[in-house]
Amino acid sequence: MSDKKVIRLRRARRSRLKLRELEAVRLCVYRSSQHMYAQVISADGSKVLASASTLDASLRGGNTGNAEAAKKVGLLVAERAKAAGVTQVSFDRSGFKYHGRVKALADAAREGGLEF
Length: 116
Known about the structure:
single chain; alpha+beta; four-stranded mixed β-sheet; 3 helices; 41% helix; rRNA-binding; ribosomal protein; Ribosomal_uL18_bac-type; ribonucleoprotein; RNA-binding
């Protein structure tokens, strides 16, 4: 693995250990060069309560690797999480910087009704 990826994974591990210690339901985000993925994971980490990505049929058309697509994913994951009975989450950015697409997804999830 490249040094850049190793450093990101180290940051992600550190934050996930803290969230596990707090026993918080987490909104986990992953971004690739082409897509955005978001999952709401239970406090013990054993179940995925809701998920959304740019690979979903409803979001598939158009660009999938920009901030506009990330906003759509954020709104969709918030809608699905509320349907599953989850309103309070902790944001797990997976070691990615909080700007651009990651920030757009988080802001949209807040607009959709999730509380961080």
